[in-house]
Structures are given as structure tokens and as C-alpha cells.
Amino acid sequence: MSGSCSPCEEQDSHNTAWPSFPELCRAAAGRLPADGRLNAAGEWHFVCWEVPIDDPSHHDQLFVESPRAERTALDETDVQGAFKRVNSVWRNVIEEDGQFAPEPNRYHLYVALACPWADGALAALFMPPDCDRRGASKTKGLEDCIGYSVVHPTWQRSRPEDPQDQHHGWTFRQPRDAPLSNGLGHGSFECDDALVPDSVNGAKFVRDIYEKAGDTGGKYSTPLLWDKKQNTIVNNESMDILRMFNSKFNKWAKMPELDLFPASLEADCEAANAWIYPNINNGVYRCGFAKSQEAYDIAAQDLAGALSKAEELLSKQRYVCGDTFTYMDLRLFMTLIRFDAVYVVYFKTNMGTIEMNFPNLLEYCKDQGCLSGAGHGKGHQHAAHQDALLHLTSRSEQVRSDP
Ligand SMILES: N[C@@H](CCC(=O)N[C@@H](CS)C(=O)NCC(=O)O)C(=O)O
């Protein structure tokens, strides 16, 4: 095979067309290619690269200079500078008679409230006192069945004792501990009452929990569902976790009848997800984590179009799929509620604000009143990704300079 590899999503290293990455990794004395990751099974996956892969003299370019590059979402970019989210690695399922059986008080959820994916999973657990404006519950009421921990919103160096290891990630603190600054030493972010330290593993960092389960490749993301019985990770994909919370713990749920994944609306939800997820939920990240102007412009255009489409849709119906609240609403809400406070500034999604420019989306958000949302969002985004974005020209700046 000759020539450069075009941008590609995760591919399997065992594909015979590609050089053997495990061998390359070994040959590089433990150094890992910059554009790849080890999955939980210890197999090497790469995201993309642009060197002639048939020429061994170029293989050095596949390796990072530091002994070890711990991955975060900020590294998940293709050669055009577009954010390409890498799939979650831990995908076990909770099922009767399976390795992970449904049981009360067996599982523990780790979340960052700043994270819309994790906050959605957490919101599904809780039964708030007075639900929404029209009195309908939107959560399962599993708070007595599944425990949880909440990280501090400001990423910290997870191995500060190792000068070679520059990974920054989620950390646990007690409410009223000393405030934290970000990795560049900026800011002072309080340890508020929303923080819940890790009572299960006693971990200082989310990374520690992944490593306890044998995952040393990262990324060390939330949500993360932990099995206290087998001392391992069940799953770190919010959609899977939501699905399991929806149906596997109904014996203990206060609202077993609430179905966020109704079979009758499956096709409608999937059709909505096909444009809402890439353009809005992940769309804000595609703007925020873009590393080229072109990638940002495409993402911002997709996002603006999808917000207008959602605005139009919700002028006609209460929920994304009609009259019924589904997981699509939970996920859309979790993005919209962060939009003005966080994404407009930090991810440069400033094609408008929900409050000023999208009246139906604003009403829609108010309608979801009982859901928790956006806790810690501002503190995290403004403090964590200190090197993202700063060189890109935002949508509103382009409009200003091009009247
Ligand atoms: N696919 C995952 C994505 C979760 C995710 O991206 N979490 C982010 C916070 S919003 C995270 O923890 N990132 C850690 C990192 O990038 O190191 C899901 O939906 O559960």
C-alpha cells in the first residue's frame, strides 16, 4: 500500500493493509503513536495519520516525542483539524444472568456535572421533588439504588510527580476544600457543595479508576459506571448507561413506568438523533475542539442549521418526538442548557443565544424544569481546555468583519 492515509475513523490494526502497530509500539520501547489508542482489550486502534505508511523511514513520525501522551478529547482531531470523537471503549451491559446483573447498591456512577453526557445519565437517576411544570416525572427515581460521585470541574495534572506525564483530567475534592486553579495556574475555582468524593475506590483522579480496571490508555472520561462487586468498569458510554438505567433497575425505580426509550418511538428517536447528535450535541464540541478555521466553519454552519431546525420543530410540538418525553429530550436539553453560559463563549458557538434568538428552544428548556443541568459547566469549560480554540475566528467575529 502506498501514499498517505486519508483521514479515517478508528480502524483495526489487524487489517493486513496496515503496519502492525503493536510491533511498532514495542519497537519504540513503550512509546505510543500519537494518533492511536489502546482499547480495554489491549488492542491498538489508530484514529488517523498522514505519513506514507509503507515507508519505514516515516514511522518515527507516528510517535510522540514524550514517552507517553495520555489522551483527552482535545487530541481527537483529524488531519483537517476537525474534531472526531473516538468511540467509548467500555461497553459491557447490565442484564439478568449476565456478568453484570441488575442489583441495588452494586453500581456506582462517576460524573462531571460540566459534562452533558454524564449529567444526562445522572439526571436519569433522580426523582426531583416537583418534576416539571406540568407535573410529569422525567427521571427514573433510582437515587436509592445507584450511588454516584461528582468530580471537581477543573482539570488537574493527574500525575504531578512525573514531569514526563502531562495528562490533565478530572479530580475529586471535598466540598469546601481549597479552590483549584487550572493547568496554567489561572483562576480559583471553589470546591462547592455539589462535589461528591469517591467513596467507593477512594480515587483522587478519574484516571485512577480506569487504571484500577486495567485501562491505561484513556481517555479518562465521564460518565463512568463502576461495578463494586467485580471491581471493574461496566460502561463509559452515556447512551448505554441511559438505556440500562431506563430498563434494568425497574424493580427498584420509583418511576418504573417512565420509558425514555419507547419502542413505538424508536424510529422517530433515531431519525432525530441522526441530525441532533452530530450537529448539536456533538456539534458544539466540533466547534469548540476544531483545530482549523475550515473545520470550525463547517461545524458552526451545521450547528446553526440544526438549531434553526430544532427551533422550528419545537414551535409545533412539545418534545423532539411529539408528545412524549424521550432520551432525545434529555440529551437535547443537556446541550441547550449549557449553550448560552458556556458554549457561546468557550466553544465560540456564537451564532446566537438560546435566550435571545431561539424563543421556542428557550421555552422548551424551561419546560424541562425538573432536570438537573449545567452544574459546573461554566467553571469547567472556561478552566480546563486552556489551549483550545484561541486562534480561530468565531462566527460573530466573521460577521463583524464582513458586514
Ligand atoms: N461517549 C462518551 C463521551 C463522554 C465525554 O466525552 N466526556 C468528557 C466530558 S464532556 C470527558 O470526560 N472527557 C475527558 C477527557 O477528554 O479527558 C459518552 O457520551 O458517554
TrEMBL record:
Transmembrane segments: none
Record InterPro entries: Glutathione-S-Trfase_C_sf, GST_Omega/GSH
Protein name: GST C-terminal domain-containing protein
Species name: Durusdinium trenchii
